[in-house]
């Protein structure tokens, strides 16, 4: 690990004043400290933001929730209003990591976590995300857990967050502060397409500090579900996951949101499947056809073709569960 | 650039003054600087749970916690679980029900179990809780719940059945604190 300065801040303006150059904001450190140990992250200063006044979850006037960026994963998943209004968000957070890591990890850090591609974490390997222009060892290497949607020849890594998949399905908005003022980005646009710049992972300006994530009020969110397939029963990253909510009235789909995890460099909002389903019959055949419509764009690598039928079946199964009579 | 700081770490109700390199993890500070060798270094990357300690009563992995970031917290290691010399119910149950073989993971399992039972008492759901709604009855703590909630603690000896048994028995007997 490279040497670094450490500064604990209690005011947002102090965080922003310190958070430039080689500095990184430190939340729970569950990903950042790990990557510092293996030499992937080399900050010159850590700005510890856990003591900023950003640890609350408050209700918004439209019936939504604003989640402070330093809220821990544990507190997010256990919050009664999250469980009541956005159960898929609580389920997604609980499906990730372990009890210890959820106690440490923060919402802001969760959004900023890096891919778990093994080649990214190994500085001896080619990786355009870690070392632009060096190539991608995964495309011709071990990529059974890599992307099938939206990847480019530069990078086939997936995004690791479960939480972000549920946030994408709920139309969440990420708010941040900079020295020039605050702004917000819809979660769906927070992570740019890979293109030939896989090292550019978010749309945040340099030095920006995530302050909160806002969930809009939603009448259908209570009927939502997160389901995750992984290589062991617990404590593993997603092979494929689905966050969805669905409203059916008299056999017709009145509202639907679907987002996929484990298949792309970002949470994959399944807009094509949603459009296919809206105002049509809520039947098993339609759910399956909607999933196939979305996955028509899939381009699996030689070693991860299994993810396409897995995603199709998972989408169809989750929608069928949600369509069960109330 | 200042790369070291003099900090206070409060471990098992005792305050220690230390000058540490910022790179020092809490695990290394506990073991190498303070002689608390209960927390074990297994993977050193947050995957095995052998280094689990309690920070302000919540379980964390000390290998991914920087010591400098733990200043101000009440740190409890396995050495602090039986502070009065009497084994805690969870410790007694691990001994009586063979909740370990080699023992390397045990201090982490014990700290994790104490933290987990407190989470459970606070009504936190888990990934195997059928309904996460806060309005229904609290689901029973069964073997599946214990296995899920303890999945951050690996045991290479495979003592899991006895670990689950010890935790379930403690939860039924003691209710909350382990």
Entry summary:
Chain A has 326 residues and is an alpha+beta fold. Chain A has helices at 12-18, 32-37, 73-78, 80-85, 87-94, 99-104, 107-112, 163-169, 187-190, 271-277, 284-295, 307-323; strands at residues 5-8, 23-26, 45-48, 57-59, 65-68, 173-178, 181-186, 209-215, 224-229, 240-249, 252-261, 268-269. Among the domains of chain A are: 5-48, Uridine Diphospho-n-acetylenolpyruvylglucosamine Reductase, domain 2; 224-323, CO dehydrogenase flavoprotein, C-terminal domain (Enolase-like, domain 1), CATH 3.30.390.
Explain what you see.
The complex is a heterodimer of chains A (326) and B (178). Chain A has twelve helices and twelve strands. With 326 residues, chain A is an alpha+beta fold. Chain A has a five-stranded antiparallel sheet with strand order 4-5-8-6-7. In chain A, strands 9-10-11-12 form a four-stranded antiparallel sheet, with helices on both faces. Among the domains of chain A are: 44 residues, Uridine Diphospho-n-acetylenolpyruvylglucosamine Reductase, domain 2, CATH 3.30.43; 100 residues, CO dehydrogenase flavoprotein, C-terminal domain (Enolase-like, domain 1). The longest helix of chain A is centred in the last third of the chain and has 17 residues. By secondary structure, chain B is an alpha+beta fold. Chain B has two domains: 78 residues, Roll (Ubiquitin-like (UB roll)), CATH 3.10.20; 86 residues, DNA polymerase, domain 1 (Orthogonal Bundle), CATH 1.10.150.120. Chain B is built from six helices and five strands. Chain B has a five-stranded mixed sheet with strand order 2-1-5-3-4, with helices on both faces. In chain B, helix 3 packs across helix 6. At the A-B interface, strand 1, helix 2, strand 3, helix 3 and helix 4 of A face strand 4, helix 4 and helix 5 of B.
């Amino acid at each position: 690990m490279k040497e670094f300065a450490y500064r604990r801040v209690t005011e947002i303006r102090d965080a922003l004043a310190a958070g430039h150059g080689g500095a990184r904001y430190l939340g729970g450190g569950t990903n950042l400290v790990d990557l510092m140990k293996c030499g992937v992250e080399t900050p010159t200063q850590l700005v510890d933001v856990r003591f900023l006044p950003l640890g609350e979850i408050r209700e918004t006037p439209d019936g939504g929730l604003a989640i402070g960026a330093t809220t821990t994963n544990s507190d997010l998943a256990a919050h009664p209003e999250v469980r009541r209004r956005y159960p898929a968000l609580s389920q997604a957070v609980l499906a990730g990591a372990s009890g210890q890591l959820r106690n440490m990890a923060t919402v802001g850090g969760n959004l900023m976590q890096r891919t778990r591609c093994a080649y990214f974490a190994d500085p001896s390997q080619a990786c355009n995300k870690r070392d632009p222009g060096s190539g991608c060892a995964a495309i011709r290497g071990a990529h059974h857990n890599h992307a099938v949607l939206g990847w480019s020849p530069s990078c086939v890594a997936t995004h690791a967050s479960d939480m972000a998949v549920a946030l994408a399905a709920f139309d969440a908005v990420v708010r941040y502060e900079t020295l020039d003022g605050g702004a917000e980005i819809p979660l769906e646009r927070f992570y740019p397409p890979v293109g030939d710049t896989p090292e550019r992972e978010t749309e945040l300006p340099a030095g920006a500090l995530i302050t909160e994530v806002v969930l809009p009020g939603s009448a259908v969110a209570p009927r939502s579900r997160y389901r995750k397939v992984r290589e062991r029963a617990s404590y593993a990253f997603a092979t494929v996951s689905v966050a969805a909510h669905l409203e059916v009235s008299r056999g017709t789909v009145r509202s639907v949101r679907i987002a996929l995890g484990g298949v792309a460099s970002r949470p994959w909002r399944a807009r094509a499947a949603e459009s296919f389903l809206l105002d049509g019959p809520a039947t098993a055949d339609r759910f399956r056809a909607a999933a196939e419509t979305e996955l028509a764009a899939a381009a699996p690598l030689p070693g991860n073709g299994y993810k396409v039928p897995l995603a199709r079946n998972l989408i169809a199964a989750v929608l069928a569960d949600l369509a069960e009579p109330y | 650039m200042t790369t070291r700081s003099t900090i206070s770490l409060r471990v098992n109700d005792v305050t220690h003054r230390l000058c540490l390199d910022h790179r020092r993890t809490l695990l290394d500070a506990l073991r190498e600087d303070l002689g608390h060798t209960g927390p074990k270094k297994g993977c050193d990357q947050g995957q095995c749970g052998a280094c689990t300690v309690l920070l302000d009563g919540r379980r964390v992995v000390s290998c991914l916690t920087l010591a400098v970031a733990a200043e101000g917290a009440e740190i409890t290691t396995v050495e602090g679980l039986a502070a009065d010399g009497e084994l805690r119910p969870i410790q007694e149950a691990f001994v009586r029900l063979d909740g370990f073989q080699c023992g390397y993971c045990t201090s982490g399992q014990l700290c994790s179990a104490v933290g987990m039972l407190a989470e459970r008492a606070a009504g936190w759901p888990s990934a195997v809780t059928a309904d996460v709604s806060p309005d229904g009855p609290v689901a029973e703590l069964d073997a599946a719940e214990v296995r899920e909630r303890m999945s951050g603690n690996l045991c290479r000896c495979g003592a899991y059945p006895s670990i689950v048994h010890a935790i379930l028995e403690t939860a039924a007997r003691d209710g909350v604190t382990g």
